[in-house]
Amino acid sequence: MKIFDRPGFPNPARIRIVLAEKGLEPQVEFVSVDLIAAEHKQPAFLEKNPSGVLPVLQLDDSTYIAESTAITEYLDNLDGEPKLTGKTPREKAVIHMMQKRAETELLDAVGNYFHHATPGLGADLQVFKSPEWVGRQEWGNRQRDKAIAGMKYFDAVLRGHSFVAGDVFSMADITVFAGLMFADAAGIAVPESYTALNAWRAKVSELPSVKNRSGQTFVTEDLRRLGF
Ligand SMILES: N[C@@H](CCC(=O)N[C@@H](CS)C(=O)NCC(=O)O)C(=O)O
């Protein structure tokens, strides 16, 4: 298997956590794609994933699988012992629901803020983003507010449960974790008053799959190129 990604970026980090959880890293060849140079918007990459985003999994039969959830489901089920996406119909449904909320209300909202209300990944990439329109920055700022509301929601969830979809670490936790990681990079602080969310984050940060392997901030080289 090959994975086209960029170490340190939030969606690639989701899959690196999954690979570590499943002990699959030795079976994967990583191919680094230069997001800041917009390599993922060029025809060679768009053939692999027409959405022009990372990560993408390439199977040995040359099937390409994009979308972090789809990649996670594939990797989690390879050994017939899923641990991140649920075993029973009920578990699968709850994890799917919470994961989707984590994407919509947090991770994607942070991404929209980052790409539309800030210089994002720089000039080469901006031409591929939504066209200039009045209110674009205002819309981006509302996405930041949406992300903070999402954090508040997950703080409330985590006051009642150990993990985002119940009592077991799952794909939904990985998505929330990536959302907070992206929030750090985009300069959106997690309010201190969200104590359950912050405590959960500290706990998840200590998991071996997260602590040792994911990379929890944008890699330094990319940060330098972005002028941070
Ligand atoms: N829905 C996609 C989102 C992937 C995504 O947005 N990846 C980011 C990297 S963290 C990306 O490639 N961004 C480049 C861009 O937006 O141009 C998934 O779940 O994998």
From TrEMBL:
<dbReference type="InterPro" id="IPR010987">
    <property type="entry name" value="Glutathione-S-Trfase_C-like"/>
</dbReference>
<dbReference type="InterPro" id="IPR004046">
    <property type="entry name" value="GST_C"/>
</dbReference>
<dbReference type="InterPro" id="IPR040079">
    <property type="entry name" value="Glutathione_S-Trfase"/>
</dbReference>
<keyword id="KW-0808">Transferase</keyword>
<protein>
    <submittedName>
        <fullName>Glutathione S-transferase</fullName>
    </submittedName>
</protein>
<dbReference type="InterPro" id="IPR036249">
    <property type="entry name" value="Thioredoxin-like_sf"/>
</dbReference>
<feature type="domain" description="GST C-terminal">
    <location>
        <begin position="88"/>
        <end position="226"/>
    </location>
</feature>
<dbReference type="InterPro" id="IPR036282">
    <property type="entry name" value="Glutathione-S-Trfase_C_sf"/>
</dbReference>
<dbReference type="Pfam" id="PF13409">
    <property type="entry name" value="GST_N_2"/>
</dbReference>
<dbReference type="InterPro" id="IPR004045">
    <property type="entry name" value="Glutathione_S-Trfase_N"/>
</dbReference>
<dbReference type="GO" id="GO:0016740">
    <property type="term" value="F:transferase activity"/>
</dbReference>
<feature type="domain" description="GST N-terminal">
    <location>
        <begin position="1"/>
        <end position="83"/>
    </location>
</feature>
<dbReference type="InterPro" id="IPR034346">
    <property type="entry name" value="Gtt2-like_C"/>
</dbReference>
<dbReference type="InterPro" id="IPR034345">
    <property type="entry name" value="Gtt2-like_N"/>
</dbReference>
<dbReference type="Pfam" id="PF00043">
    <property type="entry name" value="GST_C"/>
</dbReference>
